[in-house]
Design goal:
By secondary structure, this protein is of the alpha+beta class. It is built from 9 helices and 8 strands.
Length: 320
């Protein structure tokens, strides 16, 4: 609430008689004020939280301060621009030219499965995208939903396996995404048509093509939560490896990670954090019998490297 009040004060119109600024000048002059207000609010909140925590989480604080405007003020409409415009060069009323395209949708009538083929006709590697899907049923009704595809986990996996491919959707490549269509008003009311639209594309250079800003925020949130899970896991694993008392550092780390997983399950909107923690626990369990302390430390080091990559890929700027 304090942040909204600060923002409203910063957007008070100029006094009568002063020159009316152009729209571009309003954006350039208003953004530093919004950014400063957001960061002041975040610093205050982090200090308040410190009373409930032993220390401030450095990754979480960095992500929160960097992303404050995008997450907390994404619906702010006091000025005729969106906050994504502020993340890069203003794009005023320009149509979005997407690099990849939906080449075709294969759909067999009478089934609940479709396959969308996405061709990357851009000159850049793609790290994620969002599909908006509309399904028409036999009774004439329509249903809409979205599918968010994040390639960053695959990129991290390929990197950790030291593969030559970086795991992205390369220029000229084709990605096929299976779509399990939702049932609608009974099993006999089958889907008869499917349309698919690309409305968010994220690239390896951190630029984005976007027509659906809420979907872009969801993509950033997915990566944010995975970064938090990896950072917390690395802390726990390093501490267990450094504990000279326990005879089973791997078991100690697994026990503590399960406790963190249970905490995440009690919260809403942290599904990606849960999935990442479960994957890490499964990793540790598979190597429990022969994992040395140095192996655990190496694993934690890889997770910290993943955190750096994930945190850098939640900072977007609009493609020119």
């Amino acid at each position: 609430m304090r942040l909204r009040l600060i923002v409203l004060l910063l957007l008070v119109p100029y006094a009568k008689g002063q020159r009316v600024m152009t729209h571009e000048e309003q954006i350039v002059r208003t953004y530093p004020r919004l950014s400063y207000a957001a960061q002041v609010n975040d610093v205050q909140m982090l200090w308040l939280e410190k009373g409930h925590r032993q220390q401030i989480d450095p990754i979480q604080s960095k992500l929160r301060i960097d992303q404050q405007l995008r997450f907390d003020l994404s619906g702010f409409k006091a000025e005729p621009f969106t906050l994504l415009h502020l993340a890069g060069t203003p794009q005023l009323n320009r149509p979005v030219q997407f690099g990849p395209v939906v080449e075709n949708v294969r759909f067999e009538k009478g089934s609940n499965i479709a396959v969308a083929s996405i061709a990357n006709v851009s000159g850049k590697d793609v790290t994620g995208f969002n599909l908006s899907i509309e399904v028409t049923y036999q009774d004439g009704r329509q249903s809409s939903y979205e599918r968010l595809v994040d390639l960053l986990p695959r990129m991290l996996s390929y990197q950790n396996q030291e593969l030559s491919d970086n795991g992205t959707l390369h220029p000229g490549d084709l990605w096929e995404e299976r779509l399990d269509l939702p049932s609608h008003r009974g099993a006999n009311n089958l889907a008869i048509a499917v349309s698919v639209k690309l409305d968010v594309v994220a690239y390896s250079d951190h630029t984005v093509d976007v027509e659906n800003e809420p979907a872009l925020l969801r993509l950033a949130g997915v990566r944010h939560n995975q970064a938090l899970a990896d950072q917390k896991a690395a802390e726990i694993i390093n501490a267990a490896a450094a504990d000279s008392v326990t005879p089973d550092p791997t078991g100690m780390a697994i026990t503590q990670l399960r406790a963190v997983l249970e905490q995440a399950r009690r919260k809403k909107g942290e599904r990606e954090l849960e999935v990442e923690l479960m994957a890490i626990i499964a990793d540790l369990e598979s190597r429990k019998s022969d994992a040395s302390r140095s192996d655990l430390q190496s694993y934690a080091t890889r997770k910290n490297a993943d955190v750096e990559i994930l945190s850098s890929h939640v900072l977007f700027r609009r493609s020119k």
